[in-house]
Amino acid sequence: MKKWIWLMLLLLMAVAVVGSRGSTFFEKRPSPEIVESIPVETPQPQQESKEVDSAPQVSADKLLTHIQKLNFQRYTTKERSLTRTYITTELKKLGWKPKLEKFSDGVNIFAERPGTNKASGAILVGAHYDTVALSPGADDNASGIAVVLEVARLLGSRSTPRTLQLAFFDQEEAGLLGSQAFVSKTARLQNLGGAIIMDMVGYACYTSGCQKYPAGLPVTPPSDKGDFLAVVGDTEHLPLLSAFQNSQMLPSTALNKQESNLPPVLTLPIPFKGLLTPDTLRSDHAPFWYQGVGAVLVTDTANLRSPHYHKLTDVPATIERSFFTGATQIVINATTALLEKNEVLETQPPS
Length: 351
Known about the structure:
single chain, 351 residues, eight-stranded mixed beta sheet, 11 helices
């Protein structure tokens, strides 16, 4: 009996020793108070969040002002010329030097801010500026223009390893003519790491059944509500999509973080350059794919969600302010992260 008593005592002592070592180990970790008082000591695994968190905060007022100023049909030669004047004037105010690039059917606008490391390549952010006849195109695509101008404002003077390029494409509605002309100058593509193309990013719907999906998508639809931002990319350049998957962190400079209201992001990796899903080839990212350049389309899914697609009713009043501001912030976050990295943006084979 005494032997059992001694064994039990030894077991209790062993447990006490192990427990005390465990307590000592956890006590060595910084307490919440210490972390709060020294916020600069962020653990190393949070590096990705720090990079995204350093992105500047978008201005909802500036975004909506652009849409109001562009509240007119941009279809005829004269209307598209007026649009180019507005865009180039805004860019010049921000210190950019835009260039007009004529092609047989229209005129593209291009501007560039060099990076600190030429070997790092460039990231292009673009959108088309024309509309179909009879539509003022607030969502299609004044919303995209506004996002690119906000990128120009927030990131134009930022020092980053990668070069930032801006492009505004003409005649997208006539068959992607502007972006096809742009990528036909193959020399400019040699240093281009990836392109981010906005086409309709300002409309959201929150009732069940308002969101539709094309057949053959490689993912399960998240919802039948149109409350998310879709990012469509080719499987050959998955790091571009990853930048948007990691773009949900709120910027540290946000004055009112509740107003940022970042929408969910649905990333769609498309195989075979969209040959099996032709609905994913309907905008200016597609010509980049077929030149072997990684590109993503950022969109609210157009007619799969919006009842105003290509109609007279596509006016500023139908833009959903909160969704549009959050969508723009996501683009800023992802673009900032991509500009500050040097990693290859092509999908790497498994090791």
